[in-house]
Amino acid sequence: MKTVAKLFLVGISACLVIIYVVTMPATDSILITLRPTPEPKTDFIFPNPLDDGDVGHLDDNHIAVETKLQTEEDIYHDPYLNVKYRVDTSVVDSFNVKEYIDNAAHDADPMKLNSFDQNRSDNIGAFRFISDSRHWTCLNHKEDWSNLPATSVIMTFYNEARSALLRSVTSVLKRTPPHLLADIILVDDCSDDLDLGRLLRGLDPKIKVLRNIERQGLVRSRIYGALNAAGPILTFLDSHIECNVDWIEPLLYQLTQKPRGIVSPIIDPIKAEDLTYKVASSNIKGGFTWALHFTWVQLTAKEMEGRHESDPIVTPMIAGGLFSIEKEWFFESGGYDMNMDIWGGENFEISFKNWMCGGYLYILPCSRVGHIFRKKHPYTFPDGNGKTYSKNTKLVAEIWMDDYKELFYHNRASARYSEIGDTSPRLALREKLKCNNFQWYLDNIYPELEIPEHNDVTISFNDWCLDSFGKTDNEVGLYKCHGKGGNQSWQINKSKNWVTQEDVCLTVRNKILVMHRCQTGNMHQQFEMDEDSNTLYNSYGDICVNVLNFKSRVVGVGACNKDGVLTTKWKIAKV
Ligand code: UD2
Ligand code: MN
Q1: Ligand 1 atom closest to Cα of 216?
Q2: CA 562 to centroid of ligand 1, rounded, Å
Q3: Could you say which ligand is closest to the alpha carbon of residue 223?
């Protein structure tokens, strides 16, 4: 027993070290960037009256937990992905706020485990009053809220701080009229703390808890949640949020008016450092960069013309975490791409898909939900976060962005070499839904997005193209020109004399050519393109890029028009 316990401790410490090391260097590029939060304006009603909050009025009885061992029957087998999760059926019929919070994992540094101040979160407790951040005109709504459909709320979480998860769930219970709340599905994505989700069942009979047997990431977890949801509407929320007053009604009402689409609340930032609730502007929408990095952007002058602060915001993108959608439309439009792992990318796919395939995306300023925005991920990514983000966004680019995927590769070079598996089922979905193309989306939904000029070329000889085969440090060769760009698409950087595919450069290595990371000053990577003779000349070796053996498609370097060797005349053409 002792040895087992020791091993366990060693294991846990090793994990903590790994978590620390992996999360230390926050990769800024894959975090959501929020513009600086505007300070609350004077015309916001109830400006921050009771921000420090109270501990709520939940049942304070002692925990009476009788753990029933789960049997094989409780294990659900997902036919689609062959991944298992359990539905928690243990008896949990009461809940103790203090014990639940006190028994959470803690670290001496309160920012360490969650990337937000856990002590502060614990002190706030299960519930607090927050400022009603809506514009005052929202109170005069003219919509008929008497006949709205009920929603299921789906919250997936991985190693969430107990107090934050509890407050998220409590804010849903307290600020959603009971007849509009079908159930709350908590999906525990295999957190270390077995009781994190399970005990919350003691809060309310509407709470259902699923637990993944292996970590799946938020995409597959949300799908499991959706498959178990009873309501006709699905509302997805992160696990560190606080719903504000009347948050759900505007979302549900909009879906009764226009069922096929997605509605999001305005996401009010809760500061990670002190958990203060801030008010976000109602004049921003979701956008993105060509590296597929989510950004908030100001509404255009045209959109601001005659705009009222409570008008819906037509947005090219949703942030991704907080939104409502009809269950029927969610599944009919293909749910999520189940190939996406852990975190990231799914917000692009669901946004592009909705606009391109007959849906819409609105942000409704009269619905407000606070969310703790963090500066770095508090959790690990089994494959590393850069790699995972590249994979997920590459799936988006390959499936939804048509030729514009090249712009994505320009800006996220590493993605060119990510393995993404079979895209044909998602491409078939795009066919089936008779979706518009990406050009339509850009023209109609995001016309102000700047499209950098394409300067990609092919370099060919007798219809055989110079091809990197998508690999670094591997021999470059010839392949029949396919006209699709990709590994045959090159950029010629005249100032540095580089021939590149994003940040990898055509490089002379002995007599052959390989792709290697571009290095300023590396003479083996410098080629002059002579536009009269159409030759590629490396002055360092005084050599030219030549087809060495056309029959076996070998390319390499050799003397330039000397000693009877004929230098290859390349044809350069725009992709
Ligand atoms: C934003 C979204 C988030 C998601 C993400 C892109 C908001 C407010 N948040 O990032 O919902 O769309 O962009 O993917 O719009 N989680 C798991 N398993 C995991 C990792 C995360 O269940 O392996 C949970 C996590 O506990 C949280 C949710 O997924 O509840 C989103 O993760 P996050 O809060 O780290 O993402 P965030 O807000 O930075
Ligand atoms: Mn979040």
Answers
A1: 23
A2: 61
A3: 1
Q: What residues line ligand 1, using a CB cutoff of 6 Å?
A: 32, 156-158, 160, 189, 215, 217-218, 221, 238-239, 267, 319-322, 342-344, 346-347, 371, 377, 379
The alpha carbon of 154 is separated from its chain's Cα centroid by a whole number of angstroms, namely 17
Which two structure tokens, joined as six digits, stand for 296? 């908030």
Amino acid at 499: V
DSSP state of 33: B
Name the CA dihedral angle for 111, 114, 118, 121, rounded to a multiple of 10 degrees.
130
Distance CA 315, CA 294 (A): 12
- Distance between CA atoms of 245 and 128, rounded to whole angstroms? 12
- Split at pLDDT 50, 70, 90, the class of 479 is very high
Nearest CA to ligand 1 atom 19: 217
Q: Which ligand 1 atom sits nearest the alpha carbon of residue 377?
A: 35
Atom 29 in ligand 1: residue holding the nearest Cα: 218
CA 35/CA 283 separation, integer angstroms: 12
The number of the ligand 1 atom at minimal distance from the alpha carbon of 321 is 11
Tell which one of 186, 220, 238 to mutate to probe ligand 1, the residue whose CB is within 8 A of the most ligand atoms: 238
- Whole-angstrom CA distances from 134 to 28, 48, 224, 272, 279 are 30, 12, 33, 22, 9
pLDDT digits (tens, 9 = 90+) for 338-396: 999 999 999 999 999 999 999 999 999 999 999 999 989 999 999 998 899 999 999 99
Q: Using the Cα atoms of residue 58, residue 62, residue 66 and residue 72 in order, give the sign of their dihedral.
A: positive
Residues 571 and 461 sit within 8 Å (Cβ to Cβ) = yes
The helix/strand/coil state of 172 is helix
Report which residue type is found at 168: S
CA of 377 to the centre of ligand 2 (A): 9
Structural domains of the chain sorted by starting position, each given as residue range(s) with its CATH number in brackets: 52-373 (3.90.550.10), 456-574 (2.80.10.50)
State the burial class of residue 39 (Cβ atoms within 10 Å of its Cβ: 0-12, 13-18, 19+).
exposed
Ligand 1 atom with the shortest distance to the CA of 374: 39
Question: Which of 495-499's residues contact partners 24+ apart within 8 Å by CB, and which partners?
Answer: 496/520, 496/526, 497/525, 497/526, 497/527, 497/528, 498/525, 498/526, 498/527, 499/459, 499/527, 499/529, 499/536
Residue that is written with structure tokens 């725009």 in the block:
574
Calculate how far, in angstroms, residue 174's C-alpha sits from the geometric centre of ligand 2: 21
Question: What would the pLDDT profile of 265-284 be if each residue is shown by its tens digit?
Answer: 999 999 999 999 999 999 99
